[in-house]
Structures are given as structure tokens and as C-alpha cells.
Amino acid sequence: MSTCITFHGYVICGYVSMIVFYKKRRIIYFAIQNICHFLNAFSPETDIGGKHINAQLFLYFVTIASVEVFLSLFFLYQELDYYRQVVTIPTFIPDDLKEAYLFLVAFCVIAGFALSVTISGFSFLISHHLYTTQATILNLYAQKLKGRVRRMSWSVNTISDDISVFKNILFRFHEIDEALNSGVLYLYATAMCGFFNTISVMVSDSPYLKTAPAICYIVWSFFTSFWVFFELSAQGSRIIVQSEKVKRQLTECSDKLIRSSPSMSVLKVHHFLREIVMTSNIVVTGGGMFVINSSLMLTICGTLVTYGVLLSQLDSSS
After folding, report:
1. For residue 50, is pLDDT > 80?
2. Where does this protein have coiled-coil stretches (predicted)?
3. pLDDT at residue 154, as a whole number
4. In Å, how far are 116, 151, 208 from 69, measured between CA atoms?
5. Is the pLDDT of residue 244 over 70?
């Protein structure tokens, strides 16, 4: 029962993610366009997104093809006789078309799950590379500020320019989070269903789920779900770390300026900068409900262990 629920949960979350991305397609498009223009103006020689996009696209298509192969072997070869007995075929279907109807049902199940995987993979690629771009921008800006501190080249005008750049970064990053956070929430929900489905299949006593296609599916589901959690959480933590570096460098520039030339204009700029730095919070979220960082992996691991223990106890008691 739990295997069916988590399997359908994976499909449903994938479809909901598709609806969210479709409704927010314009917002996502303009957010991507704005952050690309900002990075091109800030550092024209820097690549946008990750460096391994071609390899990731290759793995993306391999993943889609592999899941279709696993499910086709399971539904159309291994379990076809079983589903001939349990699938209720409508009475208006002629006898010579009942076999075709059964294949159509199996094809719809396979296509539905494959579409969910396709949508989730597309959502992951967009989110991952936008988060990578955010971390890259913060790292470049932190290096620029560090070089300025080393050269001791600061003034009221440079600090004012830094305030403008930092506010622009905050706005662009908030724009990206608003565009992606709902889709990322359902992407995490899809990956969680993948983990739960893996555990459900592993603890199941059904001989149908101990075959080679089922084992391949378990391995595929576990590693793809783990990769989604690991990569997004790592990029979320990287954004937080790089943003703290930028804040420290901005504060250091302002502190050294006020020590070298204390005046009313410098004090005003210093106070304004400190206020922006203290109130700013550069993070990426899932639906605005939780911050995506490495500590989220610990919470997920604890949830999976609890689910596995409860499922094992329920199976043993029944």
C-alpha cells in the first residue's frame, strides 16, 4: 500500500510542479533574464550557471530513458500476467481490443511517471544553475571588495556605489527566490516521495518487488533523490557563506573609511551601510517556508529513518 501511495505521490508532486512552473513561467523568464544581464554587466567574462551543464543535460536525458526502460520491463514484461488478472477492463471494450487496452493502461502509467521525472529534472536544472549563478555573483563581489581593502582604495563615493550594488543584488536574488521557491518546494516533495518509495519497496515482502527491474528502480530513485537534495542544499549553503563574506568585506571597508576620515557624510554612509547589512538576509527558500542549506539534509535523513522504522514495525505487526 505504501509503495503505491508514494509512487503516486511522486507523480502528483511532479505534475503540481509543472503547473507551478507554467503559471510562473513569465516571472521565471524575467528573473533569469535580469540576473543574466546583471552578471554580464558585473563580470562579462564569467560564465552564467554551472560549468558542467553539458554533462548534466546528458545525465538528464539518460535518467529519463533509464526510468522508462525500468518501468517498461516491470509493467510490460515482468508483471503483465498479474495485471491481466487485477485490471478491470470495461465491458464495452471488445475482446480483440482488451489486450491493447491493457497495454494502453500500462503505457499511461509509464508515460505519467516519465513526465513527472522530466518535469522534476527540468526544475532541478533551472534551480541549480540559478543558485550557482547567485553564489558566483556573491563570490566575485566579495573578491572585488577584498582587493579594494588590500589596496586601501575606499571613499564616500565607493561606499555609496557599494550600497547601490548590494541593494541591486538583494533585489535580483529576492526576485529569483520569488520565482523559484514554489517550484523548489514541490521538487523537494517529489524527491521525498522518491525516498519514501525506495524505502517502501525495500521493506516490502512482495516477491514482485525483488526482481532486477525493481532493484534497478530502487537504486535509480535513491541516487536521483539524493543528488537533488545534496546539490540544492550545497548551493543554498554556498549562497549563505558567500553572502556573509560580502557583508564582512562591506563592513570592513566602511569601518576603515570612518577611521581614516571621520566626518558627517562618512558617518551617514557608514550608518546606512550597516543598517542594510544587518537587515539583509540572502537565502534561498522552499516555498518561503524553510531555508535551503546543508542542515536541511540532517532533517531529511532523520525523517527517512523514522519513516523506515515505522514502516518496518507496521509490516512486522501485520
Report:
1. no
2. none
3. 67
4. 15, 59, 17
5. yes
Distance of alpha carbon 224 from alpha carbon 3, whole angstroms = 18
Mean pLDDT, residues 52-69: 82
Residues near 206 by Cβ (< 8 Å), separated by ≥ 6?
Answer: 3
**Which amino acid appears at position 317 of this protein?**
S
Is the predicted pLDDT of residue 315 greater than 70, yes or no?
A: no
Q: Which amino acid is at 289?
A: M
In this predicted structure, the answer to whether residue 318 has a pLDDT above a threshold of 60 is: no
Sign of CA dihedral 56, 60, 61, 65: positive
Distance between CA 70 and CA 119 in Å, rounded? 18
Grid coordinates belonging to 294: 546543508
pLDDT tens digits, one per residue of 198-209: 888 777 777 777
As a dihedral over the C-alpha atoms of residue 58, residue 59, residue 61, residue 64, rounded to 10 degrees, the angle is: 170
